[in-house]
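User: Structure with alpha-D-glucopyranose, tokens only please.
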Amino acid sequence: MERSLVVSDVDGTLLGDEDGTRRFGEFIAEHRDSLKLVYASGRFFYSLVESIHEHHLPAPDAIICGVGSEIRDYPSGEIDKPWQRRVLQDFHAGDVRDALRSFPRLVDQPQACQSPGKVSYFLHGADATQLNALRKTLKFKGIHADIVYSSGRDLDIMPEGVNKGAATLHIAERLDISHNKIIVCGDSGNDLPMFRLGLHGIIVANAQPELVDYHRPGLFHATKPCADGVVQGLNYWLMEAVN
Ligand code: GLC
Ligand code: MG
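Assistant:
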């Protein structure tokens, strides 16, 4: 039987309710032989390693870090080099920062949240007009970048086409797993590119407003929050549809 690939966001999806996280761990332990597990987070590798230990999350096979800007194997931490080349081929974080200096409301996120493939700011309560103004400015300056906005607060400027969704497809190809065997799970804006791919999806009940109203065939809107919602969705997809 072909294995399934579960790709899940971490904060607000697998973490947020300790009992739910434990139940997720139990569920995965029962099904570990029949699936590959990947975490997809806005955070970077070592921060996630800490969370895995602290919250007893099941060991994944790989981690998509920094909103898709990096892919690393777990536990070795080995970087996926072809993906890294693709991410950095046409993106210069310094140029992005220079281009956006004229926006006084952008507040730099801490250094630990920045990388050569991801420039991140805090921007509270931005609306579509403000985000479009940023997009236009980047385009005008000849910068090929995408804007990812999450939770009414986090603004990530990413290399064009680089996101958690594209990283998911890259891993699936590497593992030779077909698209109808992939299940993606999340709670906020940086998870949207995974949900847009038309794969099986799980949106947890505590999702941010940008996801609550996102509907598409193939998306399971859990009625339970955080990791319990993921288990609910995995039961639905693994038991009823994917097999
Ligand atoms: C995580 C990252 C942050 C990013 C946010 C949304 O919190 O640490 O840099 O902006 O996810 O993608
Ligand atoms: Mg999240």
